[in-house]
Amino acid sequence: MSVWNTPATDRVAALREQAARYGEESAAGLSDLELLNAAYESVLREQIDTRDRYMSLLTSLRHHDDAVRTAATSAFRDHADRYAQHAVRQHMRPFDALLYRVEQLPDRPGPQQMDGVRSAAVRVRFELKESGPAEDLIDPEGARHTLRTLRHVIGVLEAREGLDASDVLGLVKNALNDETLIDLFTVADRGTPVPAVEPPAPPFAGPGWSDLGGFWAYQPDGSGAHVKAYPIGEDWYLDLWSARGQLLAFGTVPATEVAALAPALIAQADTWTRDRSEYAWRRFTDTAQATRTAPRPGQDTGQVPAPGASAAARARAATVSSPNRLAGSAASSPSSPPSAARPATPAAPRHSR
Question: Rounded to an integer, what distance in angstroms lies between the CA atom of residue 324 and that of residue 103?
Fold first, then answer.
């Protein structure tokens, strides 16, 4: 039987069988109509998650395309003027020779001098025909291939130190002469690897944050939800995951806003897990705006905030004023005492789907 023509009674029976198989005791007390409604809400949540992931993919692809386009334009701009000047000089050389012969003519040229100009014009026409295809004007003498080969040589050797200068010079000459670089990796093996420089920690790194290689994760003690942060140029891409692996919010903010925004997102994780009626990107945007406008400690009273208390206080204030908070939920006061200090080494975040 097709899945689209299944009767409601058979569908309810299948849902109850599935709930019993996975040990979901809450489904036993639901009526058939309530069970179908719960299944419909689950389908809607999956649809929202799919759209959120699709928008996240489009955003990452746009940043990648912009970075590739910028790099390609920058690499070409450095050599575009030199290529254009060389192409113009090569193309105008026969005309310059003909103009020089014309300029040397006297006021009343004789037959012999006119024959010399005609022969020069014939040579110009011949040189123009022998100048080759138009591709040579764009890429004179295979300069593009030579530059690509030199970049390959530099890319292999720049990660090594202690190399012999004569060996490196020989490889450069082979690249310029379009010869096979058979000794490239042999020369590279004679050097020692350049010590890797550890990248500096981002400004928001601190208690609750973990460096997972390529991205950072924030998960305070006692919380099943966690925030992942990925560097995108000068900004950071954040996404909030629930304890069950559901994508709850995502977006991009400057590095200076991550420290206050991550705790505010974690504070909303339980509420957003129960209420999936709003788009994840809109939740992120509203929470980020609320965090920016939340008063800093001591801003209204003129008091100087205690060291290390600004991020926690801004997170509590943003949680109170967030537009996504349910009307009946209890709100924490911005003036409430800060929680106890957490250990510096947080638990690793749970894997998300």
Answer: 83
User: Which helix (H) or strand (E) element contains residue 232?
Assistant: strand 226-232
What CA–CA distance (Å, rounded) separates 255 from 201? 11
Question: Closest Cα to residue 321, out of 336, 329, 331, 311?
Answer: 331
| Cα angle for residues 276, 282, 288 (degrees, 5° grid) | 115
Q: d(Cα 344, Cα 333) in Å, to the nearest integer?
A: 26
Threshold 0.85, pTM exceeds: no
User: Closest Cα to residue 205, out of 123, 145, 262?
Assistant: 262
Token pair listed for 348? 């690793």
End-to-end C-alpha distance for the chain, whole angstroms: 31
Residues 6+ apart with CB under 8 A from 228: 215, 216, 217, 218, 238, 239, 241, 349, 352
The phi, psi pair for 231, rounded to 5°, reads -75, 130
Residue in the structure block whose two tokens are 């897990």: 273
Which tens digit of pLDDT belongs to each residue from 144-168? 777 778 777 877 777 778 878 888 8
